Amino acid sequence: MTATPPPLEFIVGWDEPETEDPENPMNWSALVKWANILILSVIGFLVPLVSSMMAPAVQLIMDDYQTTSTAFATFSVSVFVLGFASGPLLWAPLSELYGRVPVYHATNLLFLVFTLCCAHAPGQGAFLAFRFLSGFAGAAPIANGSGSIADLVPKEQRGKFVSAWSVGTILGPMIGPIIGGFVAETAGWRWMFWSISIAIGAVTILSFCVLRETYPPVLLGRKAARLRRETGDDRYRSKLASGIGSAELFRRSIVRPSRMLLCCPAVTILCAYVAVLYGTLYLLFATYSFVFGTVYAFSPSAAGLVFLPGGAGTLLGLAYMARFSDRTIAKRAAAATATATMATPEDRLPLVVTLPGALAFPAGLFLYGWSVECRVHWAVPLLGTAVTGFGSILVFVGIQTYLIDAFEKYAASAVGANTVLRGTVGALLPLSGLDLYHALGWGWGNSLLAFLALALAPVPLLFGRYGARIRKLGGSRVSL
């Protein structure tokens, strides 16, 4: 009788049953999951806070550097976002190659260093360079946070986790100018950077204590390596191992976000829509202090407070999203089970989410622009910013959770592609903000932006209905 030859490899996966293996991040306790996601949310709050906090203090910085350049006035705010757009091209692939946590720790430290350097920049050029590098390093938790959520949370529960994580990323730009305007006016703009650096340092220390690795290919790779050491048998291999050399794997990982953005129509279209809305928001952020300072004679600290209504609208949108997103997908999943079908990523884009978001964003722009143009009481344009904030968060979170569900294995790269495009537009579009208002006025200038958002409003509605067909176009190129 012929003996059975020994296996060429021992495939290492989660212990059976997978739903009970404590090493599987999906099986971690709710406390551990929430601790990881809340830390990422706090970091995600501080990064955009740094991006926008200097908006009310731009004039003080210009006076210190003895410049009257309008380009410096807007670019000093938006250059951070340009770095923010570049970072995911590196950080997202690295997280899929070496794990989430090493990238988080390294970039948190770099973010702290470059933010401190902004406070001591000797001139305009150095200041802009450090702002760019600060944004480049700070992009990691925003680009990779969605990947961590995909590692930790099953599809039917992701809505509330993404909403919680998104609180920081959306509130940061709203609250930053409030803090920045007050500190800059009372203690000077350099202390503004020092104060936020203390907060970054504290969260960085906390992240070393709390964050745990969540990326399954890395965790199973470590498990296989441990078994090889313990048994002395080199045949143990992770079931998620690619079988590709490190150099080739890095090359594929590094180009994946760009490939997804350029070759996958679903990613391209959705990211373009988000980029237009994001760029419009940053144009508003970069010009609020000029608008309310010119029209309503607000001081720098008072100008920082005008970001509050937008933050309130955003929080209301998050509450709305958390209530309807997971509930809708749970109903769809139950219906799919009853009919022997499968829930789809398109279930993340129901009309109850996409329609209010797509319409509220331009409606808020119309209200904001024409109330300023007609010199209506300042409370009315602020109401417009709240409506815009409400609409923006429904669109952003809805599309982000859709990308996570649609490209689950490469969620970090998909969201990284989204961050790259929206960050690029968010950096460049504000440069034309003051010129746009000078040429068209507050009313028609904002109406132009609103018409553009309105023209793109059908995008999330169409994906909610026909997204599966669109995803098939170029989908095979994602993993290359």
TrEMBL record:
- Which GO cellular component term is one of those annotated? membrane
Q: Which organism is it from?
A: Thermothelomyces thermophilus (strain ATCC 42464 / BCRC 31852 / DSM 1799) (Sporotrichum thermophile)
Domain of life of the source: Eukaryota
**Family recorded in the similarity comment:** Belongs to the major facilitator superfamily.
Name where it mostly resides. membrane
Protein name (Swiss-Prot/TrEMBL): Major facilitator superfamily (MFS) profile domain-containing protein
User: Per the UniProt record, which residue ranges are transmembrane?
Assistant: 34-58, 70-91, 103-121, 161-179, 191-211, 260-285, 297-322, 349-370, 376-398, 410-431, 443-463
Membrane topology per the entry is: Multi-pass membrane protein
Transmembrane helix found in the keyword field: yes
Cite the entry's keywords alphabetically: Membrane, Transmembrane, Transmembrane helix
Annotated GO molecular function terms are:
transmembrane transporter activity
Keyword Thylakoid, does the record have it?
A: no
Start and end residues of each Major facilitator superfamily (MFS) profile domain: 36-472
Q: Pfam families attached here?
A: MFS_1
Give the UniProt subcellular location, in the record's own words: Membrane
